[in-house]
Amino acid sequence: MQQKHNFGAGPCILAPSVMQQAANAVINWNDSGLSILEVSHRSAAFENVIRKTQLLVRELLNVPNDYSVLFLQGGASTQFAMVPMNFLQKKSRAAYLDTGYFAQKAIKEARLFGEVEIIASSKDKNYAYIPDYSSNDQRVAYLHCTSNNTIEGTEMFEFPGFGIPLVCDMSSDIFSRRINVRDFDLIYAGAQKNMGPAGMTLVIAKNKFLDSVKAEVPAMMDYRVFRDNDSMYNTPPVFSIYVAMLNLLWLKDQGGVEGIEKMNIKKANMLYQEIDRNPLFKGTANVAHRSRMNVTFKAIDEATEKAFLQFAEELGLVGIKGYRTVGGFRASLYNALPIASVEVLVNAMKQFENSRKLEQTLQLA
Amino acid sequence: MQQKHNFGAGPCILAPSVMQQAANAVINWNDSGLSILEVSHRSAAFENVIRKTQLLVRELLNVPNDYSVLFLQGGASTQFAMVPMNFLQKKSRAAYLDTGYFAQKAIKEARLFGEVEIIASSKDKNYAYIPDYSSNDQRVAYLHCTSNNTIEGTEMFEFPGFGIPLVCDMSSDIFSRRINVRDFDLIYAGAQKNMGPAGMTLVIAKNKFLDSVKAEVPAMMDYRVFRDNDSMYNTPPVFSIYVAMLNLLWLKDQGGVEGIEKMNIKKANMLYQEIDRNPLFKGTANVAHRSRMNVTFKAIDEATEKAFLQFAEELGLVGIKGYRTVGGFRASLYNALPIASVEVLVNAMKQFENSRKLEQTLQLA
């Protein structure tokens, strides 16, 4: 079988050793004679898994003790609503940074619950950059940002909060680089990039921020209910949490977040260098805000785009078509994508350029 | 290794062939060279899975064409809030049937959104029966019931709606017996009993009922958003849906819901007969309302209970301890539990009785 190189934007590649352990557990988990799919979430064995996963998150991201680590469901899209439902009162105001497709979705949901002020936007240039922003309005309930814009290929590298509680959607770059959790009051992330398979959502929140909630919200939308029940108020997504644990153990073996960050920088530089060098391609994001996770680029014209897409697919490169609102290409370089796969893509771009040159020479002859 | 017999209340046993196929797909899905855990939910291959799963639900439960079949996340606990959030306006009223622990949770959430009328309750006898109920108040927004009470071991076998839209939590008995979907306006069920692994929630709803929603709710709490986006508004729980598809294909091979219902009646009768015969045990639920899915029973005294629990565990019987609010035993007989496992339990009860008799004879001698 042809080897595949999965550049998909999520759900995305996980390490082969994680897949193997996950498959084994589906048949017979830790020699228990039971599948991980049929085990009770109230069993001591699974309680150990969820505790261990939480500790791994704390260790890998240096989560301070006055922060809670929670496992929810419903992805970042549910968080778009849960954040304002908990923290935005009617007659109060929240500040949002408008940096792309998903930021817009978050803004839309917040407007159902209170006043939203967009303090900066990069809509004017199709979200190709991270706008500067500042605020000195201390009455704002929170400031919301998106650390990595999966579709537009931009990433935030600084997080000034201006004294306002900072809430951040880190779905597509959490665990890919070091962060200072203290910069944020609440971080949320759909798991299906660098944490594990789809079906789980990570929340890291400052306890003091959670305790400030005055709204009466349903149990499953109340962060404190998850905190008070160790993320087991109801049946959690057992398998997703288990695979996340395996994946975070794998990450630890890679030198943790610090180790993987170095590798991610290397991978991203390698690909951006080729995009900048190769006359057939051009990057779409502002150089200073280029994402290390989702590299977005275009071909010089539509025919070239189509031809390269086909060429790449024939080489086993999967998932490099850009999102429909942006077009072009998107190569996602998540943690588990080996550097060898980036090399295959870079070589494909070079080969494609050479075959073009050859064609032109033949036509001229 | 000792063979295990998993009587757990959920997450619960699935057929070994389903586990095997699921494990294979985690390594290499359908010879694609990709794991089911890394495949894009927007790929044609996964779109085919979600479509097929939906069609299997329709086929197995005879879902009429004017009903939608949706896949959500968050379990029944999220539905406890979503139902009133969508259908219960302030100043309107919903009727609830109070038949146990989970019905109470649903009632609690509904009270956040509007007026709740409990039209019948079996709280007076620790929820050991299904109360009679009736209503002729056509101004009620909906009537909510729980078809199977997992903890208390009771099940509803008739669903009079009295002309009011009927909403039903079927988490623990859906796909275990024939139902007439037309009796209901909305059915919801956490998947982790007879549908698949934890992490997915099934909703079957009459389109006309969905169209009646006037409240403005966030996208992820809006049933119509799931309907309009084929349950793919955001990243769905890919693996849970895939395993549900495998499991529903398995159910089809068992003669569908009609075939499995016959087997479930046989399994339940076998165990209830032994409970009624054996002088060391007694059933806890009213005979007419005994659940076929969760058989609850007690030992004649605490010492016997403790001794039998140990005896059963040594035989590889897993998950028969009753829920803490009820005590005693609970043997869950979900679709995938083989009749052979029920025989092992029944024989254990007989053996236990005989060893007791022998002990007493020896003590008398």
Automatic annotation (TrEMBL), chains A, B:
<feature type="binding site">
    <location>
        <begin position="76"/>
        <end position="77"/>
    </location>
    <ligand>
        <name>pyridoxal 5'-phosphate</name>
    </ligand>
</feature>
<comment type="function">
    <text>Catalyzes the reversible conversion of 3-phosphohydroxypyruvate to phosphoserine and of 3-hydroxy-2-oxo-4-phosphonooxybutanoate to phosphohydroxythreonine.</text>
</comment>
<keyword id="KW-0963">Cytoplasm</keyword>
<keyword id="KW-0808">Transferase</keyword>
<keyword id="KW-0664">Pyridoxine biosynthesis</keyword>
<dbReference type="InterPro" id="IPR015421">
    <property type="entry name" value="PyrdxlP-dep_Trfase_major"/>
</dbReference>
<feature type="binding site">
    <location>
        <position position="169"/>
    </location>
    <ligand>
        <name>pyridoxal 5'-phosphate</name>
    </ligand>
</feature>
<keyword id="KW-0028">Amino-acid biosynthesis</keyword>
<dbReference type="InterPro" id="IPR022278">
    <property type="entry name" value="Pser_aminoTfrase"/>
</dbReference>
<dbReference type="GO" id="GO:0004648">
    <property type="term" value="F:O-phospho-L-serine:2-oxoglutarate aminotransferase activity"/>
</dbReference>
<comment type="pathway">
    <text>Cofactor biosynthesis; pyridoxine 5'-phosphate biosynthesis; pyridoxine 5'-phosphate from D-erythrose 4-phosphate: step 3/5.</text>
</comment>
<dbReference type="InterPro" id="IPR020578">
    <property type="entry name" value="Aminotrans_V_PyrdxlP_BS"/>
</dbReference>
<feature type="modified residue" description="N6-(pyridoxal phosphate)lysine">
    <location>
        <position position="193"/>
    </location>
</feature>
<dbReference type="GO" id="GO:0030170">
    <property type="term" value="F:pyridoxal phosphate binding"/>
</dbReference>
<comment type="subunit">
    <text>Homodimer.</text>
</comment>
<feature type="binding site">
    <location>
        <begin position="234"/>
        <end position="235"/>
    </location>
    <ligand>
        <name>pyridoxal 5'-phosphate</name>
    </ligand>
</feature>
<dbReference type="GO" id="GO:0006564">
    <property type="term" value="P:L-serine biosynthetic process"/>
</dbReference>
<dbReference type="GO" id="GO:0008615">
    <property type="term" value="P:pyridoxine biosynthetic process"/>
</dbReference>
<dbReference type="GO" id="GO:0005737">
    <property type="term" value="C:cytoplasm"/>
</dbReference>
<keyword id="KW-0663">Pyridoxal phosphate</keyword>
<comment type="pathway">
    <text>Amino-acid biosynthesis; L-serine biosynthesis; L-serine from 3-phospho-D-glycerate: step 2/3.</text>
</comment>
<feature type="domain" description="Aminotransferase class V">
    <location>
        <begin position="6"/>
        <end position="343"/>
    </location>
</feature>
<keyword id="KW-0032">Aminotransferase</keyword>
<feature type="binding site">
    <location>
        <position position="42"/>
    </location>
    <ligand>
        <name>L-glutamate</name>
    </ligand>
</feature>
<feature type="binding site">
    <location>
        <position position="102"/>
    </location>
    <ligand>
        <name>pyridoxal 5'-phosphate</name>
    </ligand>
</feature>
<comment type="similarity">
    <text>Belongs to the class-V pyridoxal-phosphate-dependent aminotransferase family. SerC subfamily.</text>
</comment>
<dbReference type="InterPro" id="IPR015424">
    <property type="entry name" value="PyrdxlP-dep_Trfase"/>
</dbReference>
<dbReference type="InterPro" id="IPR015422">
    <property type="entry name" value="PyrdxlP-dep_Trfase_small"/>
</dbReference>
<feature type="binding site">
    <location>
        <position position="192"/>
    </location>
    <ligand>
        <name>pyridoxal 5'-phosphate</name>
    </ligand>
</feature>
<dbReference type="Pfam" id="PF00266">
    <property type="entry name" value="Aminotran_5"/>
</dbReference>
<dbReference type="InterPro" id="IPR000192">
    <property type="entry name" value="Aminotrans_V_dom"/>
</dbReference>
<feature type="binding site">
    <location>
        <position position="150"/>
    </location>
    <ligand>
        <name>pyridoxal 5'-phosphate</name>
    </ligand>
</feature>
<keyword id="KW-0718">Serine biosynthesis</keyword>
<protein>
    <recommendedName>
        <fullName>Phosphoserine aminotransferase</fullName>
        <ecNumber>2.6.1.52</ecNumber>
    </recommendedName>
</protein>
